[in-house]
Each structure stands twice: as C-alpha cells, then as structure tokens.
Amino acid sequence: MKLQLALDRLSKGECLKISKETQNYIDWIEIGTGVIKEYGMSIVREMKEKFPDKVLVADMKTCDAGKHEAIQAFEAGADITTVMAFSADRTIKDTLEVSRDYGARVMIDLLGISTQQRINELINLGVDLVSLHYGKDMQQDGSIHLNLFDLIRSDEKLDVTVAGGINLDTLPAIIRENPSVVIVGSAITKANNPAAIARKMKGFI
Ligand SMILES: O=C(CO)[C@H](O)[C@H](O)COP(=O)(O)O
Hey, which pathway is this one from (predicted)? Predict the structure, then answer.
C-alpha cells in the first residue's frame, strides 16, 4: 500500500517545500487541479525534475478533449493523469490509448459515481486504476465513509486509490479496506509539521 501526497491550494514554493520535507514517507506526489490551473504544466515539469523517483500524478480531472490533455500531462513528465469517470467513453478510451504510447497510466476519478454499472463499463474500456473520492466540498457536510468501497467488488482487477479528507483518525479504517494507494492532502499539507504527520501515516500503512 502506497501513500500519495496531494498538493492542493498551495503556492509553488509550498508544494516544493512540503514535498521535500515529506519525501522520505510518501510514495506518490499529486499536483492538485487548482495548482495546475494556477501554474500550468510547468509545475508538473518542475516537480518531476525535483522528485524524479516519485510517481507523479497530474490531477488534471479531464472530462473532455482527453487526448490533448493526456498528452499535455505526459509530455510534462506525469506518470499518471486523472480523468473523470462520467466522461464520454471516447474520452476514457483516448486517454488510455495515449497513456500506452507514453508507458504511463490513467487514474479514473469516481467522484459522483454511484453505480456498479459504470464501474463495469470502465473495466470493459480497459481502466485498471480508479480513485474512490469523497470531494472537498462534500467534506463540509461530513467525513469520508467506508461505504465508498461498496462500489468495488473484491474480484475486480482494479488498483483502487482512495481520497477525501483522510486524516490520522480515519486512516486505520481506510487501511483495513486494503486500497492500493491512500491519498492524503490537507491532513499533511495544512499540518504544523507535515513531515511528522506523513511519517506517522506511513508508519500505520
Ligand atoms: O482531489 C482532491 C480534491 O478534489 C484532493 O487531492 C483529495 O481530496 C485529497 O485531498 P484532501 O485529503 O485534502 O481531501
């Protein structure tokens, strides 16, 4: 099980500083959607140069123009780009095709998806990496619930990641669900001592 650091609502300087401080405890680094909107693909390029050994996730949250946006992410050095699960099948197929050309991967963000039918369709399209996601705005009305995992049947050959306000209190229950990757943003990035929290989380994992 891997720990992914999500860098959201941060300046470039903060992204670099927190990644450096926590690099011994994290496996994957995600450049958040808002950070990409602020700095463009240059921050993905810079983060890959600074942290070449980390799996770099560009949280593009693509929902259309899949081929173009996947090329943007992979050309900048991302190992993984994200695509929304509700996108047209054509968008999912195009991004998967581009990812194969680059030897990279696509993570499908399941935000808003509540049916097993869409999961089956995604698998049939060739998807092998998904993100169970309890959204930032939803977190204002409650915290992540384990029933998110009900969407995934144990016999499915999917790498499952999980995100959404995960903190030291909720982490143990999440780990028991055995996801491939636990994605943590604000619990680390907004902490007084990000490295201490990341170290504790990696210890649990
Ligand atoms: O994709 C995201 C928001 O859309 C975040 O990266 C994800 O939710 C993790 O951050 P946090 O732990 O702060 O919720």
Answer: One-carbon metabolism; formaldehyde assimilation via RuMP pathway; D-fructose 6-phosphate from D-ribulose 5-phosphate and formaldehyde: step 1/2
From atom 8 of ligand 1, which residue's Cα is the shortest distance away?
164
Measure 137 CA to ligand 1 centroid, in angstroms: 10
**48 close to ligand 1 (CB < 6 Angstrom):** no
The answer to whether the CB of 162 is under 6 A from ligand 1 is no
Do 161 and 4 form a contact (C-beta atoms < 8 A)? yes
pTM for the full model?
Answer: 0.97
Look up residue 205 and give its DSSP letter.
-
Under a CB-based contact definition with an 8 Å cutoff, are residues 85 and 63 in contact?
Answer: no
pLDDT tens figures, 13-63: 999 999 999 999 999 999 999 999 999 999 999 999 999 999 999 999 999
The length of the chain is 205
Nearest protein CA to atom 6 of ligand 1, as residue: 6
ipTM of the prediction greater than 0.90, yes or no = yes
Which atom of ligand 1 lies closest to the CA of 167?
Answer: 12
Q: Are strands 105-109 and 80-84 parallel, antiparallel or unpaired?
A: parallel
CA distances from 90 to 2, 46, 97, 113, 173 (A): 30, 31, 10, 18, 36
List pLDDT tens digits, range 54-84.
Answer: 999 999 999 999 999 999 999 999 999 999 9
Ligand 1 neighbourhood includes 184 CB (under 6 angstroms): yes
